[in-house]
Design brief:
233 residues; electron transport; 6-stranded antiparallel sheet; disordered N terminus; membrane; signal; DOMON_domain; single chain; DOMON domain-containing protein; alpha+beta; binds 2-acetamido-2-deoxy-beta-D-glucopyranose; 5-stranded antiparallel sheet
Length: 233
């Protein structure tokens, strides 16, 4: 009897929090700690007082950005993505998807680090369906301009990070930008190999409003929904 009541209460709480999670977007969770010491972050802040910075929901990643509209209705977007997870070998990817918040279709910037390499490599990659089907992921052009790309393995600060300036066509909506990030520990030349399938790796995508910093975390929605469903069934 008591346990039934508890279960019912749990389900009711789950359902009410579910509706909150799904219907509302999450406010910005500000960056903290060592990320604020990154030189590129300080420069971004120096450039414009509109720079925003948030802790991402997974992979110990933090993300800073600022942007402005150009005279051609494009968006010039500066981004800085960093993680503490990469030690001697690995890769850090960040990208945006014009259609959906998911990996396939993402236009990515990927930094690859191997031991004894003085400067890590950084390139653009177009992540097509073929990649998911097992084709090699090699550097390629993507359909917008990427400039000022910088990758730094900052041992002092403890972050591996990438800075870049993107010139985005109108197709990318800055009020609901699908962005994804990913970390892996296995590389083959310039090819990042499969990442782990931990929850953190699967949750690493969101729809971000660049103006307010609010986001909808897609991965967590699914996870939450699955949990509630399994409780109900
Ligand atoms: C920021 O700007 C100030 C004044 O222009 C300058 O003294 C300082 O070195 C700059 N800092 C960085 C990190 O660029
Ligand atoms: C940023 O700088 C602009 C121009 O100097 C100023 O008008 C604006 O109030 C500043 N915004 C903030 C949030 O400080
Ligand atoms: C920019 O977009 C606005 C509104 O969509 C449009 O009226 C204007 O003609 C566009 N300007 C250019 C240079 O494409
Ligand atoms: C990138 O891949 C997409 C399909 O996911 C394709 O539509 C697009 O043309 C490709 N871009 C480039 C520059 O190859
Ligand atoms: C990036 O490059 C563009 C043009 O090459 C330049 O106008 C812009 O100021 C640069 N941004 C930064 C943050 O260095
Ligand atoms: C951009 O996204 C916002 C928020 O989802 C939406 O209200 C707006 O209509 C979108 N704009 C375009 C041009 O699709």
């Amino acid at each position: 009897m008591q346990s039934f009541a508890l279960d019912t209460i749990f389900i009711l709480i789950s359902l009410s929090s579910l509706s909150i999670v799904v219907s509302s977007s999450k406010p910005l969770n500000p960056c903290n700690g060592d990320f604020l010491r990154i030189q590129a972050y300080k420069q971004m802040q120096n450039q414009t007082n509109t720079t925003q910075c948030k802790k991402l929901s997974s992979l110990q990643a933090q993300f800073a950005w600022n942007y402005h509209k150009t005279s051609h209705n494009q968006t010039q977007l500066n981004i800085l993505i960093g993680t503490k997870l990469i030690a001697s070998t690995g890769w850090l990817a960040w990208g945006i998807n014009p259609d959906l918040p998911r990996m396939v279709g993402t236009r990515a910037i990927i930094a690859v680090k191997v031991p004894n390499q003085i400067t890590p490599s950084v390139n653009t990659y177009n992540i097509t369906k073929d990649i998911q089907l097992g084709c090699k992921l090699q550097p390629s052009g993507i359909d917008f301009m990427v400039q000022n790309t910088t990758v730094v393995d900052d041992k002092d600060v403890g972050f591996f990070y990438v800075f870049a300036t993107l010139v985005l066509p109108q197709r990318y909506n800055v009020s609901s930008l699908n962005h994804v990030w990913q970390v892996g520990y296995c590389v083959d030349g310039l090819e990042p190999k499969m990442h782990e399938a931990s929850l953190g790796n699967l949750d690493s995508k969101e729809v971000l409003d660049l103006e307010t910093g609010d986001c909808q975390n897609i991965g967590q929605h699914r996870q939450h929904l699955r949990k509630v469903k399994s409780k109900l069934l």
